[in-house]
């Protein structure tokens, strides 16, 4: 709501005005320092206020962690987290084995020879690609849903795994935390529609595809565990603490730098609620 | 029956309200703790109309608690974050909103101060510096040197918070 009359915003004391800047993202606050001298001071003071508040929130979360969960839940959480770590390690191992990335002198799967697409090879590669490459995976899924497996599709898909450099880059760039629900949904859909797929069936045709099939199943297992972990509630509190600490550190870093400038220095003896 | 307390507004008018409602104000609570409910409570910094608005908030929050508003705001539309009543409550003229902020700060009513400040934050979110100055009719009192210094600090700060 805009007004033509003289605004009273400027007449707010710094304590009240600074509260506004605890609600704005850091970048917005930085920009708003340029509005006027009072805004500049209020932004800095708001940060100080927010850092203080974050400290209280972290303490609250830490109390929640230490008192809010029984021993059995904590133990369960620990085991599941360890299992997830193992999966991450195994995922790299399986992928490396699939493309023989560890043995430079040995043959590695050159998928170029296969002109006619075999679904037992195509589907594991497609599922792995959907999880490994968000954008390409989505494009491939559109083609797969529209036209199914044909030569054009196979050509597009195998390009992602061609040679040694591409698979190496794929696995090195892969961050499991960035996999989206949509990617998982697509992958699960392929598995549902192709329930006959199994390592026993795939491995005589291609060991690479068989490893990638297992790779996909293992990646999905990781997310099943993640779902179970979330149901315990501990992870959320830990993530909250992490996020609070990251924000606070960023703010402190900037705040200290700005505070070094005497002009915007706020005496520490002033109270947090009413510096005026 | 609940105990009633008498609040005296800036204009000298008396507003009677039940004690439980006003205990949300840390200032009034401490005054009652010190002097009891018999004595009138003078609030020279709050006008009658704003005091009535503040009391409306205090009454409502008693029945319908307001969850803490997440910082920074996830949306520029408060309605996405808080119940409709609270959004309507702060959907007022700028002047009234700022007076509510001043009153909430003076009376020390944290949820009201946060709600009103969150509303102002939605009003500045996504706006350029010039737009903010225009919207709130603020004169730029920074010297060119100060502006240059802030710009320089911001450049560094933006890299630091990446």
Describe the protein in words.
With 276 residues, chain A is mainly alpha-helical. Chain A has 2 domains: 14-67 and 235-264; 82-232, no CATH class. Helix content of chain A is 68%, strand content 0%. Chain A has helices at 14-20, 26-32, 37-67, 71-98, 119-132, 134-147, 151-159, 165-173, 181-193, 199-202, 207-232, 234-259. Residues 1-6 and 264-276 of chain A have low confidence and may be disordered. The mean pLDDT of chain B is 91. Chain B starts with a strand and ends with a helix. A 3-stranded mixed sheet of chain B has the order 2-1-3. By secondary structure, chain B is mostly helical. Classes of the chains: A mainly alpha (276), B mainly alpha (162). At the A-B interface, helix 1, helix 2, helix 3 and helix 12 of A face helix 5, helix 6, helix 7 and helix 8 of B.
Brief summary of the model shown:
The complex is a heterodimer of chains A (about 280) and B (about 160). By secondary structure, chain A is an all-alpha fold. Chain A contains 12 helices and no strands.
Q: What Rg of chain A, in angstroms, do the CA atoms define?
A: 27 Å
Average pLDDT rating of chain A? 84
Average of per-residue pLDDT values of chain B: 91
Number of helices of chain A: 12
- Indicate how many domains the architecture of chain B comprises: 2
Secondary-structure-based class of chain B equals: mainly alpha
Distance between the termini of chain A: 28 Å
Strand content of chain A: under 5%
Strand runs of chain A, count: 0
CATH homologous superfamily annotation of the largest domain in chain B: Potassium Channel Kv1.1, Chain A
What fold name goes in the CATH topology slot of the largest domain in chain B? Potassium Channel Kv1.1, Chain A
Approximate strand percentage of chain B: 5-15%
Rg from Cα of chain B: 19 Å
